[in-house]
Amino acid sequence: MSSDDKLYISYNCVHKLCQKAATEILSTIGKPDVIVAIGGGGFIPSRIIRTFLRQTGEKNIPIQAIGLSLYEDLGMGADAIGKEVIRTQWLDFGALAQHFDSLIGKNILIVDEVDDTRTTLHYALTELYQDIQENAEKLGKDMGNTKFSIFVVNNKLKPKRAELNKDLMNGGIYLSGEDVEDRWIAYPWESSDIDTHTELAIKQGNN
């Protein structure tokens, strides 16, 4: 794939999009209690947006990581999404309960770099909700105040293979830093030549 076919995004661009999103998050759902980063693309945006969500004198928002991989579904199952999502890393609810009083009733922000087919985001939201719900039932707690919001650096303007259940989000929001056309996106943390990458991003107006 030639450089002309890719959309280059600089670190500056990601930083500014996270800053803009943080302002909207704070004015709508308020400061999240925890950020769940979908690896590996969600790690760096999660760390950046946390900087802008944190108010002076407040503690840092905890960042938890989950790992998901997409595999082509060659069978008859896996529903209409068309790809199977596999957990490669997930939350340790036991450890969270010891150090954070679990995620029940928390304001949770899920972060990823791109919303492409929406398959991964659909899986993350659905599975996190179900796991927290099961944990709440075991403990005899009400998860009615548990809120899920989603931030992606870029949303590709294309038909999605899955939709997000707004009922599970419980008043949370979906937010993209910027909607973009359906092209291959080159992020700076994937680059082996950051100087050339940045030059191309500036040339495309993505700095």
Domain tally: 1
N to C succession of SSEs: EHEHEEHEHEHEEH
Which descriptor suits the 3D outline? globular
Strand arrangement within the widest β-sheet reads 4-3-2-5-6-7
Broad CATH class? Alpha Beta
Which fold does the CATH topology refer to?
Rossmann fold
Q: What is the total tally of β strands?
A: 8
Instruction: Just name the CATH architecture.
Output: 3-Layer(aba) Sandwich
Can you characterise this structure?
Keywords: Glycosyltransferase, Transferase. This is Phosphoribosyltransferase domain-containing protein. Residues 16-127 form the Phosphoribosyltransferase domain. Pfam families: Pribosyltran. This protein has 207 residues and is α/β, with parallel strands linked by helices. The protein is built from six helices and eight strands. It has helices at 11-28, 43-53, 93-100, 119-139, 166-169, 194-203; strands spanning 6-8, 34-39, 63-72, 83-89, 107-115, 147-156, 174-180, 184-186. The protein has a six-stranded mixed beta sheet. A two-stranded parallel sheet has the order 1-8. α1 (11-28) crosses α2. The model is unreliable at 74-81 (pLDDT under 50).
